[in-house]
């Protein structure tokens, strides 16, 4: 299927407000389906996860496994979260 066809199928489920009158939904469908088609066509750029974030998340889950098996404390988990926030948002 083309990105446009997938946009028509998925737009009502993905980005249509729940409490929208049927007439308004019909009017908005063209714009919404184009937006979903654009996301599909450019999925590599739209949904790319920055390498640093992927590394931070992987490290966080390694620490969490250590916390669960008892080899690290919950304090280590808190420090990892603070480090991730600092890297993302600055000090």
From TrEMBL:
Q: Which residues form the Rho-GAP domain?
A: 1-47
User: Mind telling me which InterPro entries this protein's record contains?
Assistant: Rho_GTPase_activation_prot, RhoGAP_dom
**UniProt-listed GO biological process terms:** signal transduction
Q: What is the protein's given name?
A: Rho-GAP domain-containing protein
Q: Which organism is it from?
A: Dreissena polymorpha
Q: What is the lineage of its organism?
A: Eukaryota, Metazoa, Spiralia, Lophotrochozoa, Mollusca
